[in-house]
From TrEMBL:
<protein>
    <submittedName>
        <fullName>Uncharacterized protein</fullName>
    </submittedName>
</protein>
<dbReference type="InterPro" id="IPR029052">
    <property type="entry name" value="Metallo-depent_PP-like"/>
</dbReference>
<dbReference type="InterPro" id="IPR004843">
    <property type="entry name" value="Calcineurin-like_PHP"/>
</dbReference>
<dbReference type="GO" id="GO:0016787">
    <property type="term" value="F:hydrolase activity"/>
</dbReference>
<comment type="similarity">
    <text>Belongs to the UPF0046 family.</text>
</comment>
<dbReference type="InterPro" id="IPR051693">
    <property type="entry name" value="UPF0046_metallophosphoest"/>
</dbReference>
<dbReference type="Pfam" id="PF00149">
    <property type="entry name" value="Metallophos"/>
</dbReference>
């Protein structure tokens, strides 16, 4: 069978549509599949090491976490910040985690529950009508709120350094902190009727093909096949193409994710440490502790110097975003007047 060439040159696994079967094959070729013991949360923080603190799947329940999240240099949130994308949940998360804890850098991605972050899910009305029925979200109020100014980016602004908080929101994009490269992507193999769904096989591999080969820490919402992805029903939820991308091409030091709450924990394949940091358990209780790890600070600059640089960069980002917002408001007002307005943005 002729295969379409993927940008990365990687091949889709022939069993990738059936993760359980696929893992039975793939695991035979795995050199290492070992559990990793968690680092104690009270481990001291050193000037020459960057402390990462990872949470995921807080699903709007961040209030009890205020005192449970240890300090660190970087806080990572791997998606499902909210239960249904309600802006108020994001505002609450900010109040609980964004301001109350002292992490100079905070990086997040969205997950399947963060419905309003996914313009492809939200704007075709089918998405929000269905989610309103199923999850009790006041979709009309939410829709009004989102469309009044600048689309789904209004959600990002709630979090980001150009808006109200100091999270860096990644959406198939990268950032660098303390000289360490981090890439984030929200997609998961199709999972019910939720946001950021993508078909297994070549379609999802196109998303993973965007991950730069020099990524040190990869953040996705869902797990790769075989590592911290086993469901309560002993099924495998992970993505074969994500595992291939990690093992054959990107080889990050750490891969952080969540999504499958019951598979919380850490494993290694001898090359990458896989961290399922799902904070909520299957009962939606935020009882799983945050996960921490350290990476060496590259020589050349102190942590304090990096933090000072960030503060300056944030001011510029804010100014640039204000300009974009004003331009967009103007354009949309003109479109509304002309009857050509379609509120659809990335
Ligand atoms: Zn999820």
């Amino acid at each position: 069978m002729a295969e379409k060439q993927q940008p990365s040159g990687l091949e889709v696994h022939e069993l990738s549509d059936d993760p359980l079967e696929c893992w039975e094959e793939v695991k035979k070729t795995q050199p290492v599949q070992e559990k990793v013991e968690p680092m104690p949360l009270d481990t001291p923080i050193y000037p020459d090491k960057v402390r990462f603190v990872v949470v995921s799947d807080t699903e709007g329940k961040t209030w009890p976490l205020r005192r449970k999240i240890p300090p660190g240099d970087v806080l990572l949130h791997c998606g499902d910040m909210s239960w249904d994308g309600d802006p108020n949940e994001i505002i609450r998360m900010n109040d609980d985690l964004g301001n109350a804890q002292d992490h100079p850098f905070k990086i997040c991605i969205a997950g399947n529950h963060d419905l309003t972050f996914d313009p492809h899910f939200w704007w075709p009305r089918i998405g929000w009508q269905t989610c309103g029925d199923r999850w009790g979200l006041d979709v009309e109020a939410c829709h009004e709120w989102i469309r009044k100014d600048y689309g789904c980016e209004q959600m990002h602004e709630l979090l980001s350094e150009h808006g109200n908080a100091n999270w860096t929101y990644l959406f198939d994009s990268a950032t660098e902190v303390y000289g360490i490269k981090i890439y984030g992507s929200p997609w998961q193999p199709i999972f019910g009727w939720w946001a950021f769904n993508e078909r297994r096989g070549d379609r999802i591999l196109y998303k993973w093909d965007k991950i730069p080969a020099d990524t040190d820490i990869l953040m996705t919402h869902g797990p790769p096949l075989g590592f911290c992805d086993e469901t309560r029903g002993k099924d495998r939820a992970g993505c074969a193409e994500l595992l291939t991308t990690i093992q054959k091409r990107v080889k990050p030091k750490y891969h952080c994710f969540g999504h499958i709450h019951e598979a919380y924990g850490q494993m290694t394949d001898g090359q990458t440490t896989f961290i399922n940091a799902a904070t909520c358990n299957l009962d939606r209780k935020p009882d799983n502790p945050p996960v921490i790890f350290d990476m060496p600070l590259p020589p050349g600059k102190t942590k304090e110097e990096y933090v000072e640089e960030k503060k300056k960069a944030d001011v510029l980002k804010k100014e640039a975003w204000e300009k974009t917002k004003q331009e967009r408001r103007k354009k949309w007002a003109e479109q509304r007047a002309a009857g050509t307005y379609r509120c659809y943005t990335h």
